[in-house]
Each structure stands twice: as C-alpha cells, then as structure tokens.
C-alpha cells in the first residue's frame, strides 16, 4: 500500500509508522508504538549486559630466584583468579646480571605453569620482552 494510506491507518490507531527496511524496493514499514519498542529494546540490551561476564587480567610477579614455598603461595593466588574466570598475566622481572641467565627464569615460569595446569591453560607462551618474561594463563573450560 502507499505510504499515505499506511500513515492514515497508523494515525487512526494512535501508533507510529516505522520503516523496518528502508533500502528495500518498495520500503518495508511496520505500524507499532515506537516509544514502547525503544523501551523494550533498551530493556533487552540492559539484560544482555547484566548477563555478560567481563574477563579481567590479574598480574602475578615472580623473580628468577624465587623459593619453592613462595612460588606455591603465588600459584595459590593465581589459582583463585583462574577459578573466578579471570586471566592471569605472569611476569618475571630480571634484575642486574639475572638477564644473562634467562634459562633459570624460563624454568621458574614452566614450573609455575605446571602447578596450575589443572585449572588453567597457557594462552601465550613465556616470551622475553625487554627485562621481563611474560606468560598469560587463561581459565580452563570444563
């Protein structure tokens, strides 16, 4: 039907004439209460945002010559983060001459990853970036 006829029908019912697909030939329109439609769409969007889980990245800092007990304490903290659904960024900073012996730091990071292998998976392998070695762990999907 023509746009004028549709507008008359919409006015007689105290509703709005809304273009659903303006690019189509001929354009497709719908008679509805536009204010109510916008309200319902905003409500759906708010509900979707409420159900959405944002993933935070928590950081754990280690050193190349960390003791076993300290490593376990850090692993327990990272374990809590992973169980909450957050990612964990493990950074190991080399100070002074430690930079010449990065294999020791690599071993510490590998051991840290094995302590957390039941709750987390390595998303990005350990890489040396400047004076830091960085690895990212993500929660395991079970």
Properties at a glance:
4 helices, four-stranded mixed β-sheet, 2 domains, alpha+beta, Ubiquitin-like (UB roll), two-stranded antiparallel sheet, 142 residues, Translation Initiation Factor IF3
* Order of helical and strand elements: HEEHEHEHEE
**Can you summarize the main beta sheet?**
4 strands, mixed
Helix content range of the residues, please? 40-55%
Q: Which structural class is indicated by helix and strand composition?
A: alpha+beta
Described by the principal axes of the CA atoms, the overall outline is rod-shaped
Whole-angstrom Rg: 28 Å
Mean of pLDDT: 88
User: CATH H level of the largest domain: which superfamily?
Assistant: Translation initiation factor 3 (IF-3), C-terminal domain
As a percent range, the share of strand residues is 25-35%
CATH structural architecture of the largest domain: 2-Layer Sandwich
Low-confidence stretches: none
| Total domain count | 2
Please sum up the structure shown.
The protein contains four helices and six strands, in the order H-E-E-H-E-H-E-H-E-E. By secondary structure, the protein is of the alpha+beta class.
Plain-language structure description:
With 142 residues, this protein is an alpha+beta fold. The protein folds into two domains: 3-51, Translation initiation factor 3 (IF-3), N-terminal domain (Ubiquitin-like (UB roll)), CATH 3.10.20.80; 57-139, Translation Initiation Factor IF3. 41% of the residues lie in helices and 30% in strands. It is built from four helices and six strands; from the N terminus they run αββαβαβαββ. It has helices at 3-12, 34-51, 68-83, 102-115, and strands at 16-21, 28-32, 57-63, 87-93, 120-129, 132-139. The strands form two sheets. The chain has a four-stranded mixed β-sheet, with helices on one face. Strands 1-2 form a two-stranded antiparallel ribbon. The longest helix has 18 residues, at 34-51. The model has no long low-confidence stretch (mean pLDDT 88).
């Amino acid at each position: 039907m023509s746009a004028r006829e549709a507008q008359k029908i919409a006015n007689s019912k105290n509703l709005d004439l809304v273009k659903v697909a303006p690019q189509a030939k001929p354009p497709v329109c719908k008679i509805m209460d536009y204010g109510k439609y916008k309200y319902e769409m905003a409500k759906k969007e708010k509900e979707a945002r409420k159900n959405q889980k944002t993933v935070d990245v928590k950081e754990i800092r280690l050193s190349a010559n960390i003791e076993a007990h300290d490593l376990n304490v850090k692993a327990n903290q990272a374990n809590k983060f992973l169980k909450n659904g957050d990612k964990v960024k493990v950074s190991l900073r080399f100070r002074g001459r430690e930079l010449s012996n990065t294999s020791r730091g690599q071993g510490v990071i590998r051991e840290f990853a094995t302590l957390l292998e039941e709750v987390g998976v390595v998303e990005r392998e350990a890489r040396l970036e400047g004076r830091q070695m960085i690895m990212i762990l993500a929660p395991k999907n079970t």
